[in-house]
UniProtKB/TrEMBL annotation:
It comes from Gloeobacter kilaueensis (strain ATCC BAA-2537 / CCAP 1431/1 / ULC 316 / JS1). Keywords: Oxidoreductase. One of its GO terms (molecular function) is oxidoreductase activity, acting on CH-OH group of donors. Coiled coil: none annotated. Belongs to the short-chain dehydrogenases/reductases (SDR) family. It comes from the Bacteria. This is Short-chain dehydrogenase/reductase SDR. Pfam families: adh_short_C2. Residues 1-13 have a biased composition (Low complexity). Transmembrane segments: none annotated. InterPro entries: NAD(P)-bd_dom_sf, Sc_DH/Rdtase_CS, SDR_fam.
Length: 288
């Protein structure tokens, strides 16, 4: 038995297309917690969630719906996953619209916000969650095309979406950006990805200061190793099988363990918090 096999958390698996399909994962990520009962914390609010079709984004959509928010989910092309998330939101008695496209394109980001306003008449919460990653053994292997693509999806899109959403966000609105533990620890084989995640931390802190006079709070969440479609879509079967084993809790987290952080930051529970990052990362101590 190899060391990787001894640390296996889930069966070895590999997906060839990013950002990956939740429907193809074994076991399925846990996106809900039956012991979580909503308390109308987001009653009649509207949230736009990028990467909302699967993984952390799906869990956030479900938890927001439990808190009585309506949801617009933006995703690339994982239509089966998106329809599943739509059904889950509607099972909570809330409305959900799905919007497919490339958030690396500023024009599409504007269209996504416009569609949300057309469907719901308002926008109160923006969750910039979608991301992609492409491991490479060396910086020499990162092409200019990969570098630009990773930056466009992970950080340019956050600028585009905030710019498009800002005219519709009123005092009391919230922006929540997904960064990563890699922004604090670094990651030798995810140089471009980790760099974008560091940029998101700086963006969150700076934007919070820029918007505080408008009454708009801006915060972030920096998950550790979470079991999402991005993992089998990024790594080989052996590494995927041991994903999360190096965390202090010695396991990968589940999306349902991350989603409550977003509920907290979206709701009035965090009314005196802006420019901060939460760290659901399995016990990794970072300077955040």
């Amino acid at each position: 038995m190899t060391q990787a096999q001894s640390k296996a958390q889930q069966p070895p698996q590999k997906q060839e297309h990013q950002p990956g399909s939740e429907a193809q994962m074994t076991p399925q990520p846990v996106y809900d917690n039956e012991n979580y009962h909503g308390a109308n914390k987001l009653l009649n609010k509207v949230a736009l969630i990028t990467g909302g079709d699967s993984g952390i984004g799906r869990a956030v959509a479900v938890f927001f719906a439990k808190e009585k928010a309506d949801i617009a989910i933006v995703y690339l092309d994982e239509h089966e996953d998106a329809q599943k998330t739509k059904q889950l939101v509607e099972q909570q008695g809330r409305r959900c619209v799905t919007i497919a496209g490339d958030i690396g394109d500023e024009a599409f980001c504007k269209q996504a916000v416009e569609r949300t306003i057309q469907e719901f008449g308002q926008l109160n919460i923006l969750v910039n969650n979608a991301a992609e990653q492409h491991p490479q053994e060396s910086i020499a292997d990162i092409t200019s095309e990969q570098l630009e693509r990773t930056f466009r999806t992970n950080i340019f899109a956050q600028f585009y979406l905030v710019k498009a959403a800002l005219p519709h966000l009123k005092s009391g609105s919230a922006i929540i950006n997904t960064t990563s533990v890699t922004a604090y620890k670094g990651s030798p084989k995810l140089l471009d990805y980790a760099t974008t995640k560091g940029a998101i931390v700086a963006f969150t802190r700076s934007l919070s200061q820029a918007l505080i006079d408008k009454g708009i709070r801006v915060n972030g969440v920096a998950p550790g190793p979470i079991w999402t479609p991005l993992i089998p879509a990024s790594f080989g079967p052996e590494k995927t099988a041991s994903h999360g084993s190096n965390a202090p809790m010695e396991r990968a987290g589940q999306p349902a363990e991350v989603a409550p952080s977003y509920v907290f930051l979206a709701s009035e529970d965090s009314s005196y918090i802006s420019g901060q990052i939460l760290h659901p990362n399995g016990g990794e101590v970072v300077n955040g």
